[in-house]
Amino acid sequence: MSSLPSIAIIGAGSMGGAILGGLVAPTVTVDGGIRVTNRTEAKAATVRHEGVESFALETDADANLRAVRGARVVLVGVKPAMVRDTLIEIAPALEPDAIVVSVAAGVTTATMESVVPGSVIRAMPNTPALVGRAVTGLSHGSRSSDDDMALVRAVFETVGTVVEVPEAKIDALSTVSGSGPAYVFLLVEEFTRAAEGLGFSPEQASLLVSETFLGAMQLLAASDDTPEELRRKVTSPKGTTERAIAVLQEADLESLFARATAAALARAKELAAS
């Protein structure tokens, strides 16, 4: 069982909603309750249930202020371009000991600290939070204590694994675990198209590929072997897999992934600069 203090989520969209899902799990107790906001009443209604107060900005202009009053942890889940204005709005209503956590890419702790007076922390979760398998990177601001980090870590551990890194590394982390699910989905897409090209129906191809990826990752998680060693165990000398791996390696995957993550990192720096 996890016991957490009162929490506000400003912008309970896909990521904020995923974290909310972890907070309302039977194994988690949130003393003081959870308050969340969304732009529309339709969205607010979908997360309004026992233990969760949900406010809509379209019907209550002070929804964000109502949500953060009394909250120990304030999670800001709005888009990056909206973070600073949102912090300016809620700053007067924050409790003195409130910890403000942003999940927006490119918004630095320095930017946040220029607006709010207390502790700020950056978080970079990923979409597997929706199924409780997130990897979340955390970076503290200049005014955040070890206790603040421990509390925020406990919040994100309700939806998966947490890695604490210096803020100088948070953008690089976002190119791996943050963007990483998209890389995996792209591989599944292309492998599925290849299976269809071999004559399997879309349904069969999807099943073959998705279950193969899932099974391989579960084997990796359960094994003491490295990915390289597990690959070797599948690859019989002079066999079919060896021939396929040779073709894949011709694409210079090491360089390809290095260039892809470098491009993502460059974009993260552009977002921070703007």
What overall geometry do the principal axes of the alpha carbons give? elongated
Question: What proportion of the residues form beta strands (DSSP E)?
Answer: 15-25%
- Helical content class: 40-55%
CATH superfamily of the largest domain: NAD(P)-binding Rossmann-like Domain
Q: List low-confidence stretches.
A: none
Q: Helical region count?
A: 12
Structural write-up:
The chain has about 270 residues and is α/β, with parallel strands linked by helices. It is about 50% helix and about 15% strand. The chain has twelve helices and ten strands. α2 links the parallel β4 (about 35-40) and β5. α7 crosses α12 and α8 (about 180-195) packs across α9. It is elongated, with a radius of gyration of 22 Å.
Secondary-structure map:
Elements: E1 2-4, E2 7-10, H1 14-23, E3 28-30, E4 34-38, H2 41-46, E5 52-56, H3 63-68, E6 73-76, H4 80-90, E7 99-102, H5 109-113, E8 119-124, E9 134-140, H6 146-156, E10 160-164, H7 167-178, H8 180-197, H9 202-222, H10 227-234, H11 240-250, H12 253-273
Parallel strand pairs: 1-3, 2-4, 2-6, 4-5, 6-7, 7-8, 9-10
Antiparallel strand pairs: 8-9
Helix pairs in contact: 7-12, 8-9
Organism: Antiquaquibacter oligotrophicus
EC number: 1.5.1.2
InterPro entries: 6-PGluconate_DH-like_C_sf, NAD(P)-bd_dom_sf, P5C_Rdtase_cat_N, P5CR-like_CS, P5CR_dimer, Pyrroline-COOH_reductase
